[in-house]
Amino acid sequence: MTRDEIVAGAYEVIQSGSKSFRAASRLFDRTTRERAWLLYCWCRHCDDVCDGQTYGFAGGFRGNVAVLRGKTHRAVAGEATAELPFQALSLLLSECPIPERFLEDHLRGFALDESGWQPVTEQDLATYCYYVAGAVGCMMAILMGVPADDEETLERAADLGIAFQLSNIARDVREDLEAGRCYLPSDWMAEFGITRTTLFDPENETALVAIVKRLIDGVSIYEESARLGVEKLPFRSRLAVLSALRIYGAIGRRVGRLGSAAWDQRVTVGKMQKLAYVVPSFAEAVATGRS
Hints:
This is Phytoene/squalene synthase family protein. It comes from Sphingomonas sediminicola. By secondary structure, the chain is mainly alpha-helical. The chain folds into 2 domains: 1-96, no CATH class; 100-291, Farnesyl Diphosphate Synthase, CATH 1.10.600.10. Helix content is 69%, strand content 1%. The chain has helices at residues 3-17, 19-25, 30-51, 65-76, 84-95, 100-114, 122-143, 151-171, 173-178, 186-191, 205-227, 235-258, 271-287; strands spanning 53-54, 57-58. A two-stranded antiparallel sheet has the order 1-2.
């Protein structure tokens, strides 16, 4: 396919797969926006294959990480492929110097899911969040123009991804448990005398809310760390990142406010609310940079 055809295909993927990321991506300049779609296309495919989903919803075919890793390595090598996600990745890598280690780190997160892993400690959780989202933050930073050797800024980008993932984990506790996964550290659960099988028992409601509050507290900590790197980005990228930060943070904080009712239905942020977050993000983007 031509570049335009690959980009159009990637856009269709993000249209179906993520309203929040799609909304934030519209704030980028055209080149950055298209590259963000290309990266999302590969990430979405990897996630779907590992979860047996299609665009994050049930009904897909469950594959394995070894196959994904092999196809990814071939895309890195520039080998021809008929599959859109790997064409998108190959095209992206031809335009952006993204180190392969970030791709491999991202796949490590899926490998943990494949193994049925659960974090024991808070550090285990942070490491997992880096793999599945922080590494993506690093890749996004590079396609926004951050040099691949600017470790300090990339660490802040990783923190942003970790913040996003903590919000997702807080929102999806019940959904993940129903899929046979639990991302709440077993050390935390042991403090309250509960396990993944008793997590949603009525008598453990207070304990569950207290544990999830720790996740939400972590969101704020990683958000503040991430903000320290925003000034290194071009204006439109700053605007997009700060808007995404507010949108994803709002998801986590709403989960915190809802308490035990947070998992009665999936917590989302409406279109008008997302637009409302652009205004303070614009002001902050102006205040934290020069261009």
